[in-house]
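Notebook, p. 212. Picked up where the previous page left off. The plan for this session was modest: take the two constructs that came back from the sequencing core last week, fold each one, and keep the raw output in the notebook itself so nobody has to go hunting through shared drives later. Recording the first one now, exactly as returned: residue sequence, then the structure token string.
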Amino acid sequence: MLYETRFKWLLPALLFAVWIASACVVQPVQHMPTPAGEAEAQMQATVRALRTQVAAQLQIAPEEVSVIDAEAVEWPDACLGAGSPQEGCALVVTPGYRITLAVNGHEYVYHTDRGPYWLRLVKGPEVNVGAPVITATVTVDNGSCQDAIVGSEGVAFGYCGLALFGGKFVSPARRTTLAEFAARYAPFEAQTEGGVIRFAGDGEQIATRADQEQLAQWVTLLVMEAASGAPMGGLAYHGPAEPGADDASKCATLTMSGGEATVFDCEGNVKTIKLNGGPLSRWLTIQDRFAPFAVETETERLDFTGMGAVEGEIWQQAILAWARTQYAELSSGKVSAAGATVLAWNLGPVDDMEASCMHLTVLAWGEAYAEKRDCVNGDIQDMQIGWLDTAEMEYLHDWTRRHTTLYAEPGYVVGAGDQEAGQEEYAAIELWIVDLWRRIWASGESQAGSISADDLAVCPQPTDDLQLFVDRNAGYCLLYPAEYVAEITSDGVVNLVAGSLMNHIDPRASIEVSDAAGRTLAEIADALAAEYAAGFDVQRAATTVGGEEALVLDNLPGQDINRRVVVLHNGRLYSFFFTPLGETDEARTALESFYQNVIDSFRFLAEGE
């Protein structure tokens, strides 16, 4: 059931993966000659699509992928003249292209059809994905054979016996999951239903047959994910019309995949919601953190395809609680923070300071917020976000299962049992809360967009239309549209995008911070112009960003016409990339408004933030 429904959720993303993983046994139709003008346009469209796909696989902008050569070819077989020894290729002439791309001086040679629905990498640079942890030969959902090498820096994949492409993890969480698997399991080699897997772990746990199958499934998803450049997690929840009701019809349904959620209510109404902001961030975190599972009760069923390593019955119940809440909120259009909170507790002043108080919030699915709040008005001054570990989650679940809801002056703990907490139990749960706050505060992650007291004097205030992003490590803050998300890629680049990284239509910005290496602003601008726009008359203009002098390089050529802004501050280079500038007045106006909001609101934080 889980395998079947997963394919339906992932179909849009798999259309990308099918390009590099299509089995060549289909008889092509007879192709009629195409007029010269149309043929050239068709080839250029194929080149653009391939260029965009390679950029997604490498997690870079399409403008960084150069086109070296493209030519029309009549391939001698349905495998595009690049069949592997394991394949049976139909001997039918197949019109297509030979396309050569380059990234950072490395060439990639592809054979494609004219769709392009099929493509094969026939020559590429030597792959380097770090020390290999997993090598595998797997069968992906369309039946084709793929070789894979998974290392600390990414995943290499390709047709069995042919060239491998060194792809990137779509999220830093994949590297974390790989490390968790490596630390957990001892080395093994196994033939699974999904294919052969060779695992070089350094753990002590002997992988069971089920563990081996799970790892093979994870590698298969990882290959398809790396090929598409998009996350592969999915979810299908079925339950009663009213959460908690005893209706066993399971007529209410929620599906989630990528950046979208679809709600089917019990009256037959269907609604698709584009996720953004907090809901999208939490969904991506959950699919990155937890392993796949299916769980069913008398009134609910949840099929979850995660890409993480955290597993166990307690977490299945936690994600079920999260899915239940998501259905309720998305179907009603109303967010209920109180309905998701199982614990809220004020721990008193921090280190005997009266100005700042500690506060802990725990949500039903194990997410925890360790906050410092103004002791007078309760405003959040700073926040760390983390997750309960399995032992903490089991303790809290057992406490709430046995006890009635505890209401006290410091806060509350929601209970579903019939036992009232006595004095000793009250003291025990309060001590547990204090320990949990300290652990989350020490090991959690700062929330993007949360502001400390020092930030308040520097950063612009958010509005209904603009939200605040704070990057303390890079030393800046800014405002960006409320419907956008701030995605941070593995190389530390912050991307302000509408919905997801795959949206290349709406205005978007990337911000990279690096060592200026003693260069001047003019030297940096000259280097950019020479690298990205050789032979073009690049337009330059002076501006101000965060109170510092900056340079704008406008109308740079690329997959889309783009704009670069560079500024120096305290020895660091802050580089902005805005695209697409737009070919219509409406599109240009949208980009200019987006650009002006970002640049005008940009502030440098005080040194040391």
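Okay, moving on. Second construct, recorded in the same format:
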Amino acid sequence: MVIASGCVSKPSLHDNAELLRLAPYLVGRARRGVVGSSRYARSLRDAIRHAAQDPQRRPVLISGEPGLEKDNLAALIHHGSPSRHQLMLRLDGALLKADGSELFGSGDGQDPGLLELLGEGALLIDKIDQVQPALQQRLVQLAQNGCAARLFFTAETSVPALDRCCTLIRVPPLRVRRQDLGEWLRFGVRQRSRKLGWSRPPQVPEAVVKRLQSYDFPNNLRELETLIYRALQQMRRQESTEPWPAVLPDDVFWTAPRVQRLRFDIWRWKPQLREWMRSPWLWNGLLFGLVSWLFVLVNLWLWWGPQDRAHNGALNLFWAWWWPLILLGFPLVGRLWCSFCPFMVWGEIVQRLVQQLGWPPSRWPRRDSDLWASPLLAGGLTLILLWEELCNLQNTAWLSSCLLLLITAGAVIGSLRFEKRFWCRYLCPVGGMNGVFAKLAITELRAQVGTCSGSCSTYACFKGGPADGEGLATAGCPLGTHPAHLTDNRNCVLCLTCVQACPHRSVQLSLRPPAADIQREMSLPPGEPGLLLVLAGDVCLHHWHRLLGWSPLAPASLVEGPWLPRLAAACLALALPSALFLLARLWFSLPRLQRTLYGLLPLVWALLLARHLPIGMAEAGLLLPVSGLEGAPFWSADPHVIAFCQSAAVLVGWLGAVLLLRRQLANSPLAWLSASCLALLVAGAGRWLVAGLPV
């Protein structure tokens, strides 16, 4: 008689009633072997092999943290032993009665216990450390004296009495054998893909493995299985005719976030505000009814109006209003500008048109796109900054329009090629800058992991889908990110699409301490430190004459004269922060330098703000007169007020950098003091650069 895939019952068991009594406790084949190639995995396999080949069939105690599948290891030992054809039973120690009647019977001989019925099979008592003390003592005596059945025990805490009479196997937690995580992930994906009917399992990029290796997995393999299940469910296609995914992106692997402190839930305070902010008419009216056509009018004005900033209101809007306001907005609303950015509004309009014509854009290339996109993003921002200075875009209207139209063309081409906002997430230079400084914001949009994993099965906030309960029909997150997976504000534009789609009110809009995303253990996106250095170089580039004007080889101006000397001077000024960073690598490790660099993020933001404040405070109030309305009211800040505001901005940036560096370099007070002195030096040099220069 075959029981549970290959286990043959012992010949003496011929009574169906006895078989029925044993059936609820039977253990079939082992679920899986020991995966991994680390020394821990090899040692564990050796221990299992030796226990299986033990001719004396000594009891085995398998100990370890929760979620390590210790019962599966006991099954591996039994099914790898010469007694593999005997039955194996599993009992939960926490559920056993104190008198042990299930195991030993009633004592009158009329109701035999499971041990007697089992004969020479194997008995697994799971969680022996949770057995009632009286019964635990009897089981210890049974292990010492021996019995016909082979005994297996699992425990999460130490049981000293069993240590002396059992073969001990200690299972290391998953965080100890991080080297095996990639193999566990790929094995789990293969197993789960087979259950979903996918003939070819998707690949797991190495970048995903490296990110997850920084997570401790408190519930070990059980938590890893849940993580894999959620990832594949998010990638599962709605239409059965579509192929399965070739690669699993980083976005679908979301782990429990760190404990969030000092959060103020805005929508719990004002529930009606949530309903108003998630209203589709608000966003559709703003994006497609106002922003799209205002963008067209601004570009027409830039082309056909006067070409200098003193007579063109559109040029005044672009340089005196937009740049200072977007920098001031980063600490408040993060990347909100990207949610109604006109570049991507026209990208979405074109995307919807081609979809109606029957040409749906392709799905995203779900590999680690940051690896190849980040250098392009940093390079694009570098070219824009050089173009701005060398061609005097601040005072040339049609060239400023060319810059706007060029970025819009990238958004349109990206929208034609890929679904959603691929351009906005990976390739837009302005979006890259916004993503870096969004980490400073005091607002964050996050979903509750417990609610999402326990109540949601559609993942509509991430993938899109029809209306469900109070959730509205949406196309999903435009940046392809699940709100419970977010670890920082880099890939959240506060468009509230996830809030519209969520039927469980899991997504929350909260206020938090500034720069809460900058943590010592945070994962760094590839290429982002380089982008931060380019942004710091913008300050040096705009004030290049103070840095390089002393050289006899320096050109008289970056706007006029031979092209090659101007380009060389501009590139040299822009590259100064990057050169200093590379020079520092000769003495300091890359992780410490990167932590220091992110600690200086508030200071970089403050210096960029100080660089744009003069034009904003001096000329923003002249919008009406320069637009042709002679006699209209205007205002312009006094140069001393501008200088005071620049100094205040730099001081705030330096104080923020000192606090962040304390967090980043908490393990080394000397390193923190040194980095704080460096921040003070950078703040002083930056204030000297931006002081007293014409805009």
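Notes on construct two before I forget. Strands lie at 2-3, 7-8, 60-63, 88-92, 122-126, 150-155, 167-170, 264-265, 443-447, 507-511.
Flagging for discussion at group meeting.
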